[in-house]
C-alpha cells in the first residue's frame, strides 16, 4: 500500500459509515534502529493548515480559539482503529467520540438548529 | 521521534556523499495486523507520476515525444534512510547503489 | 421503462439548466453586433461541454467519487486549496450575476429596481436549498426552465436566413471590430464551458446513486441534453440578430435584450422573456450555490447531500447560507449585474485550465476508472479544451479591457 496515494487525503468513515473528515496527516514514529511505523491518523486543525503554511496554521488557531467548539486541537486516531482501506478508510470508532465532527455538531447546534426547518441533532 | 509524513513529502534527499537524489514522493507501507510499518520510500521525479497514478497518461505522451529520458524512481528501504534531521533527509548509502523501483 | 424516464428527466435537466444570464447576454450581444457570425463559438462550446459532461458522469458512476472528492484525494490538500480559492472566487461572481439576473427580470416585470429584489431573491434561493431535496431542484426547476423554449419560437417566427445561419456555424474572423468580436467569442466559450456544471453533474450522479450500468444513459443525457441546450443559445443569438441586429444597437441594458422576444411575439414576448430569464437564472443560481458548497464539503470531507435535513450536514448548509447572503450584498449596493456577468464570463474562461488539467489526469486514472478510462478520442477533446482554455486564459483579461 502507498500512503500518499492510498491513505492521505482519503475520506474517513466511522463504524456507522458516517463521514468524519479526511486523513489530513499521518504520524510516523521513528526509532533508533527500528522500522518506522505509522502510529496515528490526524484530522483537521493545525495539521491541515500546516500543509499550506505555518503562518496560516497560527492564524487558524487564533480564530478557532475565539469562536467554535472548545476542542479545536488536531484529532488523533491511532492507526490500530483502521478497519479497511479502499474507496474510503473505515475506522472502528464512533465519530462523535473522536472529536472529528465537533465543528459539525457545534454549527448544527448553534446555527442550523436555530433556523426554522433546520432539524435536530439526536440527543446524546 | 514523531514526524508527520505529509511534511516530509516533497523534501529533497541527499545521499551519503551529499549528492542530490531527488524528492520523497511516496511511502510504501506494509500492514501487519493492526500496525502499519514503513517499508520503503519512493524518491525521484517519476515517483510523482506514480503517486498521481498517471502512468496511463504519461507513457503514451512520452512515447509520442520519443522521450529518451529514463524514468527515475528510486526505492529506498527504510534502513537506508536517515531521518534524524527531518528537514534534510539523508541516505545511508550512495546514489549509485540505489535500486530503481519497478 | 424507468431508465427511459431517467433519460428524459436528465435531458430536461440539461436543457432547462443550460440558459442563464451569461449565455443569454453573450448570445444576444453576439447576434446584435455580428449577426450569425459567432454561431460557431456556441457550437464549439457545446461540443466541448458534451464531452466534459459525459466524462463527469462516467467518472462518478464508475469511481463513486465526485470530481472534487477525487481531486483532493489525488492531488493533495495544498494543490486542492489553490483550486478551491480560484474556482470559488469566480463561481461567487457568477452567483452574484445570476441573482442579479433574477432581480433584473423582476425589475422589468414590476418596475421595482433590482437592488430591492436582491434580499427577497436571495432568501427565496436559500429557502429552496434549505427545504428542497436534490430531486426537487434538479427536476422541478428544470421543468420550469422549459419555458426558455420560447426563445426558439421567437427565432423561428422571425424567419432566419438559414444559409446565413449555416455559414455562421463555420468559424471565421471578423474584419473590423476584431477586439470586440474576440471578446464576445471568448465570453461565449466562457459561458458555455462551465466547470461548475461538471461539478454539479458529478455530484448529482452520486446523489442519484449512479453506477456502471448508467454509462449509456449518461452518454445519451450528455449528448441530447447539451445539444438541445446549445440550440437554445443559438436561438437567442439568431433572434437577437434578426430583432436587434438591423438597428445596429449594442445591448448594454437588460431591457434591450427583451426585444428578442417582443419583435417576434408582440403580445406575449415581454412577459415570456422576463419569466424565461427569471427561471433560467434561478436554476443557475441554485446550481452554482450547490457547486460552491460541494467544493468545500467534498474537499474537506464533510457530510453533504441536498436530501438530508440541514442539521445532518450542518457545515454544508452553513456554507451555502453564507455564500447566498454574501452574494446579495453587491446587488443591494447596486452593482450592475450585466457588468458582473461579463467579468465573470471572462474570469471563468481564464480559470478553466485550473479545472480541466487535473480533470484530464482523473479521467485517465486506472484506479478510479479501470477499463472505463478515456480513450484517445476523449483525451484528444480534453487536450483541445485545455489548449482553448490556455488561450482563453491569456487573452480573456486583455480583451475584457479592450473590447468589453
Write up what this structure looks like.
The complex is a heterotrimer of chains A (124), B (102) and C (404). Chain A is α+β, with helices and mostly antiparallel strands. Chain A contains 5 helices and 7 strands, in the order αββββααβββαα. Chain A has a single domain (3-114), classed as SH3 type barrels. Helices cover 29% and strands 23% of the residues of chain A. The longest helix of chain A is centred in the middle third of the chain and has 13 residues, at 54-66. Chain A is globular, with a radius of gyration of 16 Å. The model of chain B has no long low-confidence stretch (mean pLDDT 84). Chain C has 404 residues and is an all-alpha fold. Chain C has a single domain (2-171, 178-403), classed as Amino acid/polyamine transporter I (Up-down Bundle), CATH 1.20.1740. Helices cover 78% and strands 0% of the residues of chain C. The mean pLDDT of chain C is 89. Chains in contact: A-B, A-C, B-C. The interface between A and C is medium-sized, with 31 and 26 residues.
Global shape of chain C = globular
- Into which percentage range does the β-strand content of chain B fall? 35-45%
CATH class categorisation of chain B: Mainly Beta
CATH topology of chain C: Amino acid/polyamine transporter I
Give the full name of the CATH homologous superfamily of chain C. Answer: Amino acid/polyamine transporter I
- Second-tier CATH architecture of chain B: Roll
For the report, how would you describe the main beta sheet of chain C? none
Tally the helices of chain C: what do you get?
18
How do the strands line up in the largest sheet of chain B?
2-3-4-5-8
N- to C-terminal distance of chain B: 30 Å
Low-confidence runs of at least 5 consecutive residues of chain B:
none
CATH class descriptor of chain C: Mainly Alpha
Span between N and C termini of chain C? 49 Å
Content-based structural category of chain C: mainly alpha
**CATH architecture term of chain C:** Up-down Bundle
Order of helices and strands of chain B: EHEEEHHEEEE
Specify which chain pair forms the largest interface. A-C, 31 and 26 residues
Quote the beta fraction of chain C. under 5%
Mean pLDDT metric of chain B: 84
Number of E-state strands of chain B: 8
